[in-house]
Write a structure and sequence with these properties.
9 helices, 4-stranded antiparallel sheet, Chitinase A, domain 3, 8 strands, 15% strand, two-stranded antiparallel ribbon, alpha+beta, 3 domains
Length: 276
């Protein structure tokens, strides 16, 4: 499957209606959240949600900057007469012919996909047979402040240990932005949610033993340096309910049927075609 038809399948698989919210305007041209989301989906082949949480914001910003750059170049190309040039018109004509075919393929595939229906019985049967697929491990939402020495970490702990609740959280964020040498420092040390085994052993062992809303009272040493950890939230292990995952199941089963229907359709078209 080529990139354009792969993107179609990705967008259809997600089934999401993305926001048309304007993020920035470049010389009067709006760049929307929808455009950024589409670029992200294409760049990650539909796996943007699998990008680590601490990298998603930076990735979004990078894509936004790329779109801004394209608008600036396009605007300059128009002003400098590129669009009226013979070379541009020649390449545009070639592209138009290619896109006419690709667009027809996309609409044809979407019509075929839309014709596929999944019954409630099929959805429930899949859920019952694959329930373990929807198990979620215990996870924590943590922040950390990474420094080079134990003394630095102890100094930070001394500023935090008398605080609690929202005051503790806000002070932790403030110190993370000021003192942390880790890449998450600019975001207040935010590591997002993660499950057991995703962090290095010493960090993992400590953070999962802590209570929500608390910090480490002793620095945690790893190969990266000394950590002061704050646990913002904890989620127990759980199995998602049918109602929570039925849309996901429907998308998966629909795509499985789509592949089978596509193969059958392509075999039939090939038999009828004059291929030499």
């Amino acid at each position: 499957m080529n990139k354009i038809t792969m993107l179609l399948s990705v967008l259809l698989l997600t089934g999401s209606i993305v926001s048309a919210k304007t993020l920035v305007t470049v010389n009067g041209k709006a760049i929307t959240q929808q455009e950024v989301d589409q670029e992200l989906m294409q760049a990650t082949q539909g796996r943007f949600n699998q990008v680590p949480a601490d990298r998603q914001a930076a990735f979004r910003q990078q894509v936004l900057q790329q779109l801004i750059g394209k608008e600036l170049i396009f605007d300059d190309a128009k002003k400098s007469g590129i669009i009226q040039s013979k070379a541009y018109k020649s390449e545009y004509k070639k592209l138009e012919q290619r896109m006419k075919k690709e667009l027809a393929i996309q609409v044809w595939q979407k019509k075929l996909l839309d014709s596929i229906k999944i019954s409630t019985k099929e959805l429930k049967n899949y859920y019952k047979k694959n329930k373990e697929e929807f198990n979620e491990k215990e996870s924590v939402h943590a922040r950390h402040i990474l420094v080079k020495t134990k003394a630095e970490a102890e100094k930070i702990i001394a500023q935090l240990k008398s605080l609690s609740g929202e005051k503790l959280k806000q002070k932790f964020i403030e110190l993370a932005k000021k003192d942390s040498t880790g890449p998450s420092g600019s975001k207040g040390g935010d590591l997002g949610y993660f499950s057991k085994g995703q962090m290095v052993p010493a960090f993992n062992s400590k953070v999962f033993s802590m209570k929500k809303g608390t910090i480490t009272l002793e620095p945690v040493k790893t190969q990266f340096g000394y950590h002061v950890i704050y646990v913002e939230d904890k989620k127990p292990s759980m199995t998602r309910s049918f109602d929570e995952v039925k849309i996901f199941i429907e998308q998966r089963l629909k795509m499985e049927k789509f592949k089978a229907v596509m193969k059958k359709k392509m075999d039939a078209l090939q038999k009828k075609a004059n291929i030499k």
